[in-house]
Structures are given as C-alpha cells and as structure tokens.
C-alpha cells in the first residue's frame, strides 16, 4: 500500500501530536485534513470500540458558522428538513441539497442560538456553497470556518470516562442534544452524538490551546477503562448503516435515494433551494436506494471503487463500502440497488476485483 | 510514515492502473482524488523530470464547466483578471476571489467558446462556489463537473514525445494556448501548460475509455526518450516558484499577497465579486507577500505545517513549502513574509521542527 505524503495542505489538527504518539498507522484525508483510519489494526480497533472507550480526532468535521439576522433563513435554504421546531441546544442531521435535489453534504446542524449556527460537515467544501448562496441572495449573515475541532469519545464506557473529566452532568445530555461544560476554565459544547453506534459524545473544542490538555486528561482519567486512541471504524460503521458522503452517496444522489427521506419535510420546508426538485421525488419515490448487502465467501478486498451489482446479466446497482465483519461472520456492505432488485432477500451478484460473489439484499443493517 | 487508506471517496482516476503498474510509492489527495507524489524517489524523479519526459496523472485537476448565455459573465464575476480580451483557444491563469478578496482557488480558465468554459481547478471544491453564485444571481448557465481527466506530459523531451503520438502540429501550440488533436478518432484539447518549469503539455481527456490507451501509446512511443511515470515534483516546483493552493496560500490571502497582482486588473474587471475589496489592496499594496527563501544547513525535514519566520525576536512570517535542492545545493523554500523583512538579502530565522536555522530572502525564485 502506498504512503501518504504530508504537506501543509493536508492540515494537521490540534490533536495530531496525540494521534502520532498513540501510533497511528493509516490516514485518510477529509476536508483537506488528516483523519486517522487505523491504530492497532482495523479489526482490533473494532473489537476495542465495541467493548471499551476511544478518543477520536475528528477535527476534520469542520464547522461552517452562520451568524446574523438571516442565519436561520439561510440554514433553511440549505436543507429540505423543516427546522422551524428546532431549539437552541439541539443537533439535527440535515441533508444539504442543490437546486436539483442532489446532495452536497450530510452534516449535523448545531443550533447555538436563533442567529448563530454551526454546520458540522462531511467531506466537501460546503463553506463555498453557503458563501455563494449568502452572497448571491445578499443575505445579512456572516459565513466562515471557525477554529473548532471536534474530539469524539465513543464506546460503551464513554459516559463513565466523560463524567470523570466534565462531571456527572454529561450523563444527562440526551441524544443529539448538547450542553455547555467547563474544562480548564473554558466552556465547550458537548453533544451526545458521533459516527458510531456504540454511544458517546462529541466535544467541540474551540481554538487549539487546550486541545492536547483535554486529550491527555481523558487518556489519564480513562486508564482503568482501557481508553485508547481510535477513529471511525470501517467495519462498525457499515454494520450500523452509517453512510459516508463521497463513498456511499455523492451529488448525483437525492436524499431519498440515500434512505434519508425521513429527514426531508419537502412540503413544509419553505425556502429550501432544492424543494421544487424534491417535491417530485418525494411523491414518486426513488428508482434506486441504499441497501445493506451481505456478500458471501471469505473476506472481501478493500473497496476502493464502485463494485458492480448484477442480476440476470444486467447492472442493477453498485457496492460502495464493504468489509469483513468478525462479529457477524460475513461480509457486510452498503450499496445502491435498483427498485427491481431492492427487496429484502433478493439474490444478486457482486463483481469485486477478486471475482464474482453472490450477495443477498437485507431488510436492515446489522445493528 | 503512515499509509493512505483507500476508499471510493478518494477517487481513482482513468490512469490509476498505469500509475500503479509504474510503481507509485506515495500519494496525496487533491480534489477528493488520488494524486501521485513519488515514483522512484522525489530526488530521482526530479533529476529525470529535468532531463527527459514524464507522464503525470493530474486527473485531480478537475474541471468546472460553464455553459450557456451567461457563462462569460459568470466567469468574470469569479476573477479580478480582465477577461475581455481572451479568445477561444486561450488559457488564462485566474485567481478566484470571494467578496473580501480572499482566494478560493487559483485555476486555469480554458475558453472553449464564448458560451463554454472549463476551469481547471486547484484543491478546493470551486464547483460549490460557482454553483452558489449562479443560483443566487439566477444566471442562465449550466455549471457542473464534466468527466475530463488531464494527463500532463512534462520535461524537455515533451515536444518530441507528443509529436510522435499527435503529429508535429503540437510543436506549434503556443504557451497557454490549446488546440484540438485526434487520438483514436477522438478530439482532445491539448494545451502547452503544466505544473513545472520544464516545458510540456496537458491533454484534457474526456471520458475514461481511451485514457489507458493514450497512457500506453505515450509510454510505448517514448521508450528511447526514457519516458517514465512522474508527478508534480516538490523540489522543482519550489525552485520554479510554482505556488500550491492550500500550501502556500489559502482563503485568508489576497492575490496581491501571493504575488499575483499582475493577474488582477482591478480597475477594469467590472463585475468581479471581490473587486471592491481588492481596489483598496491594489492601491495600498499588501503588508505581507510570498517570497523565495534560502534556508541554511543540511536538508530540512518535510514541511507538513507552517514554520514560523522570526527576526529580532518577532514573528515576521511563515514558511509553507521547503525542500533540499540537489541542483542548487541549498534548501529552497516558499514563505509569506511581512513588508518589514521582505527585501532581498534580509536575514531571518526559520523555526522548523528540528530547530532554528538562518535563512535569506531572495529577489527571485531559482528558475
């Protein structure tokens, strides 16, 4: 496998020193920033994530900040999810679409106040779209990327670890809510969220000064909990059906194709730029959709490109993410499958670089 | 050094099979796509680039295509360079700025026709900005990323190699012009351009079908010219003063700070979104600017973050790119230096991770 050539353009994070000291072995690049992919091995990291607690440097979840009188209006222009009922202190998963209904990003919107929002983004320069829209519509709003680096604490022992550093109050944070908690005299937004199904938190660390102190404090406090550096885990996220923008969906896809129709209130999200295009999709439904796929045989090779899904000699979809799951003793995969073959139980053929394999469409993901 | 974890999100290119067969050893990620960084060694690739000819997979220079009645108007909104005199068949290096004059990208604009342009982009999702502007201003233009993958042929023997595959007509292409040339029955735009100072071409390959045939045809035709797979070379590009967006400049910088004032016709570029902000900068001049710096001592470590530049105990700038130059027998570097210390011959102190070194500001780059 090839090495990654580091440069300023692939930005380091305030936690990079900790990540390196923990022996990071692989990186990907996400929002022009380094994102660790493996520490001990993907499988070892996977078992540990499910049984203990990990610190994840997810600084690459950059924020787009909206501030000003038109902030809420702009936020609603970006997404088909109806935001009228959203309160400060809430986090909403919001598909972001262009005028054709194509997905530009699938971030989490964090409502700090009526006139102040953070959009915690997936891997695309959403800042450019938001700035372009704000400029073109002459909105009264400031849009920029603040110096905020999220640190995730994930795994079943997350509550115990977090309580030791931030106090027992963190235990009361509800899912996709956040509160303000102090560390070294600074208030930090702490949300119950994260890119795993093992439970945990994301701490929005403003500025870099306290970042390594926080990292070290959590490492120190969690010694007997077997805390370890970790990162979003390929196997666990496929088992849990956590989609990855750029892998499982792109701007070619509508939210409905991605199974995100439940986050689209197309009839009431007045002002959303892609609303007209999505009204039709919402009525007729998509002709292809994300599905969980179980692929037969031994461990599949790394899925670094789309793998064709065929049936009866015809192309009926693509696999976009796949991995061997030790816990389920099978290959777990995410793919986009045409309506004709998306029913649970349908047998299809996957063409991975090492040959053809049979696969079955599942009703649901694994966890 | 850590490995790169491949996934669909880090897109392969139509030339990836050729790149792998040639023994690529390192990658970076550029516009969500794999960009090779080293084949034999950075130094060996450097000497070879200066003496022979290389094929570069620069598919990551993605295109933003503008098509329609408002294409030319939109193009002028994006850049402070006056485009009125630009003819179809020309390529212009165009700083792209936001409403504050901050640089969003530094692409090459390719004028195919009055109503059809390609913007061959550096590493940021310029598509999002252009789509946002087109949407917000309700322009009559289609904006998308076409399936076009540039292949560069660079080095002193480029003309000879290209003539063997495309005919002697390529020798007549003038610098930053392009013409249409046939390969396997397809017309391809071939420009005299590229990210080195060694001369050469960029072939805009539409679709992936003929890509590997073209790669193989060039490899075959250039055997006796010692053709080899290559890539933008860190040492050579610093010697030549070729800036890298994300490394040497970001959206914090104006074109004038980047020494790109000669590409800004601030008084006549009517319609440019950042024009108001840049008018002041153009009059007063920047307070810091890109400079070539010669750093003393043996080879510097890899420059993966900004290195402070200090003088008399004060911070006066940052180095953003640096490498040991075998041909000039010194460390060559690019940095942003404050006005008080940017005159040629000024001695400053560079703080790289392996300690402090003296450096001298140069009048010009090396080649």
Give the CA-based shape of chain A.
globular
Q: Number of helix segments of chain A? A: 8
Order of helices and strands of chain A: EHEEHEEHEEEEEHEEHEEEHEHHEEEEEE
Fraction of residues in β-strands of chain A: 25-35%
Largest interface: A-B, 50 and 50 residues
Taking the alpha carbons of the first and last residues of chain A, their distance comes to 31 Å
- The residue-averaged pLDDT of chain A reads 97
Number of domains of chain A: 3
Assembly form of the protein = homodimer
Helix coverage percent of residues of chain A? 10-25%
CATH class of the largest domain in chain A: Alpha Beta
Q: Tell me about the biggest sheet of chain A?
A: 6 strands, mixed
Q: Going across the biggest sheet of chain A, name each strand in turn.
A: 13-14-15-12-4-16
Helical/strand content category of chain A: alpha+beta
Task: Walk me through this protein's architecture.
The structure is a homodimer. Chain A starts with a strand and ends in a 6-residue tail after the last strand. In chain A, a hairpin with an 8-residue loop joins strand 14 (about 185-190) and strand 15. Chain A has helices at about 15-20, 40-50, 70-80, 125-135, 160-165, 210-220, 235-240, 275-285, and strands at about 5, 25-30, 35-40, 55, 65, 90-95, 95, 105, 110-115, 115-120, 140-145, 150-155, 180-185, 185-190, 200-205, 230, 290-295, 305-310, 315-325, 330-340, 345-350, 355-360. Chain A has 3 domains: about 15-60 and about 145-240, Probable tRNA modification gtpase trme, domain 1 (Gyrase A, domain 2), CATH 3.30.1360; about 65-145, Aminomethyltransferase beta-barrel domains (Alpha-Beta Plaits); about 285-365, Elongation Factor Tu (Ef-tu), domain 3, CATH 2.40.30.110. Chain A contains 8 helices and 22 strands. In chain A, the strands form 5 sheets. In chain A, strands 13-14-15-12-4-16 form a 6-stranded mixed β-sheet, with helices on both faces. The first copy, chain A, has about 375 residues and is α+β, with helices and mostly antiparallel strands. At the A-B interface, strand 1, strand 2 and helix 4 of A face strand 1, strand 2 and helix 4 of B.
């Amino acid at each position: 496998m090839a090495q990654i050539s580091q440069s300023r353009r692939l930005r380091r994070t305030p936690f990079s020193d900790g990540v390196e000291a923990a022996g990071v072995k692989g990186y990907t690049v996400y929002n022009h920033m380094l994102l660790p992919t493996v520490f001990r091995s993907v499988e070892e990291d996977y078992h540990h994530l499910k049984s203990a607690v990990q610190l994840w440097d997810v600084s690459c979840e950059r924020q787009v900040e909206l501030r000003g009188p038109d902030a809420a209006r702009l936020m609603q222009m970006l997404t088909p999810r109806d935001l009228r009922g959203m309160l400060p202190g809430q986090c909403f998963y919001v598909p972001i679409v262009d005028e054709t209904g194509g997905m530009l990003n699938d971030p989490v919107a964090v409502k700090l106040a009526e006139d102040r929002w953070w959009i915690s983004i997936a891997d695309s320069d959403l800042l450019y779209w938001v700035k372009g829209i704000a400029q073109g519509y002459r909105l009264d709003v400031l849009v920029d990327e603040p110096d905020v680096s999220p640190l995730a604490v994930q795994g079943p022992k997350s509550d115990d670890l977090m309580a030791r550093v931030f106090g027992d109050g963190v235990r009361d944070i509800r899912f996709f809510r956040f509160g303000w908690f102090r560390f070294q005299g600074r208030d930090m937004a702490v949300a119950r969220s994260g890119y795993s199904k093992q439970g945990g938190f994301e701490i929005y660390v403003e500025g870099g000064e306290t970042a390594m102190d926080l990292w070290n404090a959590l490492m120190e406090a969690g010694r007997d909990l077997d805390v370890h550096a970790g990162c979003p885990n390929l196997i666990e996220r496929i088992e849990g059906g956590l989609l990855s923008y750029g892998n499982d969906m792109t701007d070619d896809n509508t939210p409905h194709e991605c199974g995100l129709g439940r986050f689209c209130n197309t009839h009431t999200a007045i002002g959303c730029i892609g609303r007209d295009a999505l009204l039709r999709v919402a009525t007729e439904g998509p002709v292809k959709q994300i599905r969980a796929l179980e692929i037969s045989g031994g461990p599949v090779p790394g899925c670094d490109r789309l793998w064709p899904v065929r049936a009866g000699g015809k192309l009926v979809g693509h696999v976009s993410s796949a991995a061997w799951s030790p816990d389920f003793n099978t290959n777990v995969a995410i793919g986009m499958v045409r309506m004709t073959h998306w029913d649970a139980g349908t047998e299809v053929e996957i063409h991975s670089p090492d040959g053809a394999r049979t696969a079955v469409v599942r009703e649901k993901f694994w966890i």
